[in-house]
């Protein structure tokens, strides 16, 4: 099955790459600065968080004597959460937004999730590059543990892609799914230690938040960028298991319902 999937995607690689390029270009069409906004937007966010939290609010991480530690902590969580949010939110509408394409053109439907992932990867690569440049310039480069970023991102993308596939298929048949997930995503954000350190919470709350599969993942990102520490790989095992489960369920739903989706669109 995986071999056939790879062959289908490879045969339509020009279609996938063309779709990614068109979306990137259309996003900034008729704007004065064009694609420069892809740099200005994340750059401004990093600068604002750094200035506001480190200089104005004087926010500090417990036990860390660094004026910019909390800003880096916050950026590490927000940037990677943004990748998760973009993949899942775009995936839940990918079949609905391409209804005309699905009805008029014959192509492997699995191309649509891949296009979503590629677009999200391009956007995140730009943001991550700016963030890493900021760390290098300010002398806060995490060192060798930065290599752990590759498996961490792979795990997050797999988790988000599997969940997104489930949402995308269900949203075709039950349109409330998209609205409901938007609300759930907001609660999910605040139940993930992104803007607050987990250590400041009572132990009972820490145990509760540990049930969140993204808690360990975000904590790994933050420890990597703030402290230059390798992830505790065992803590990521539940996230891996759930991510694989999401992918299996998502692909099963997709294969079972792909023929019916066109009629529902």
Would you mind describing this structure in some detail?
With 265 residues, the chain is mostly helical. The protein has one domain. It has 12 helices and no strands. It is globular. The chain starts with a helix and ends with a helix. The model has no long low-confidence stretch (mean pLDDT 85).
Broad structural category: mainly alpha
Helix proportion: over 70%
Report how far apart the termini are.
Answer: 26 Å
- SS element count, helices: 12
Mean pLDDT: 85
Topology order in helix (H) and strand (E) letters? HHHHHHHHHHHH
Count of β-strands: 0
Q: Describe the biggest sheet?
A: none
Fraction of residues in β-strands = under 5%
Taking Cα atoms only, what radius of gyration do you get, to the nearest Å? Answer: 20 Å
| Tally of separate domains | 1
Shape: globular
Question: Unreliable segments (pLDDT under 50, ≥5 consecutive)?
Answer: none
Fill in the keyword field for this structure.
265 residues, mainly alpha, 73% helix, 0% strand, 12 helices
Condensed summary:
The chain has 265 residues and is mainly alpha-helical. The protein has helices at 2-11, 13-27, 37-56, 69-92, 94-97, 99-104, 111-137, 149-173, 176-190, 203-209, 215-227, 237-264.
Present the secondary structure layout.
Elements: H1 2-11, H2 13-27, H3 37-56, H4 69-92, H5 94-97, H6 99-104, H7 111-137, H8 149-173, H9 176-190, H10 203-209, H11 215-227, H12 237-264
Helix pairs in contact: 2-7, 3-4, 3-7, 4-7, 4-8, 4-9, 4-11, 8-9, 8-12
